Amino acid sequence: MSSLDAFAEKTLADLDAKALRRNLVATARGAGAGAVRGGKALVSFSCNDYLGLSLDPRVIAAGQAALARYGAGAGASRLVTGNHPPLVALEERLAAHKGKDAALVFGSGYLANLGLVTALVGPSDLVLVDALGHSCLFAGAQLSGATMLRFRHNDLDHLRGLLGVRRARHGRVLILTERVFSMDGDRAPLPDLLALAEAFDAWTLVDDAHGLGVVEPGARAPLEMGTLSKTLGSYGGYICAARPVVDLLTSRARSFVYTTGLPPASAAAALAALEIVEAEPERAARPLRLARRFTARLGLPEAESPIVPILIGEAPAALALSAALEARGYLVVAIRPPTVPAGTARLRVAFSAAHSEAQVDGLAEAILAERA
Predict the structure, then answer these.
(1) Which residues form the Aminotransferase class I/classII large domain (predicted)?
(2) What average pLDDT does the segment 19-25 reach?
């Protein structure tokens, strides 16, 4: 056995001992929040397809039409020949939706945050990241070479203290947070955070991956980032900002410049989904309404978004509850460290407009029965 193979085997054994090893499971998703695993039909509460648009016939038709007209791939990076018409149209619509001058679409949300942070700050600058921010926010900050500090989750007093002590030592300051936090489902206090940032001449990036279309937008940040893969049911990421900022990212964001453009079908599908989001507000309101129905049934704090965490604690217990629910017909995947802090393994329940009230009530009853 080579040293590489030996290292991999030992590391996997360590992960197994802590119930932290990950494994891929083939999953066929279907209508009505359905999913099939191992030949068993399940109701999925683990998809980020909050409006069920990835399976909407209108979205599928838009993707198929773009596939037939423009081909399967973009053919090159966007600065070469990969800037096809569906991407241009999508960026115009995203910018309008966010109330910004311009938008820039990336290959994924992760790539968008990596590219933006590294393009805007460097070694003499400061990046302040909410402690529960997504992995890509921290990765971008680390790659930038800037000084990176965490502020306690949604704690504006802590953020104010860090700015007061550190602001004068750095040229540019970037604050990174999320509109809806992906593992806890709570929201950032954006109006107050944006006012604080402005007082210290700091720039704020809001990751809206889990808020677009399902949570009232409220205050807009100078830098609005999001994904096309959740509410919009497609794939990709984007940044919306003032025109000079987007023009700068077009030239300086490495994860944009040095990668092939998004496939035409993905862009066209996302555009069709965004049109549905804007045209059908009652559909957009449904996931949060269902999440609140669920939290009321379980006696949990009222949901702030379509994401509701069921905190368990240790990884083996979270895996056991997930398996028990799957045996009852519900797919609720366990989330374990390092995705969440040690000791906070959980089930992350995600609600969709595709769910019925009966499915939501059934899951609540199953959880109560398993935890009795």
Answers:
(1) 42-367
(2) 95
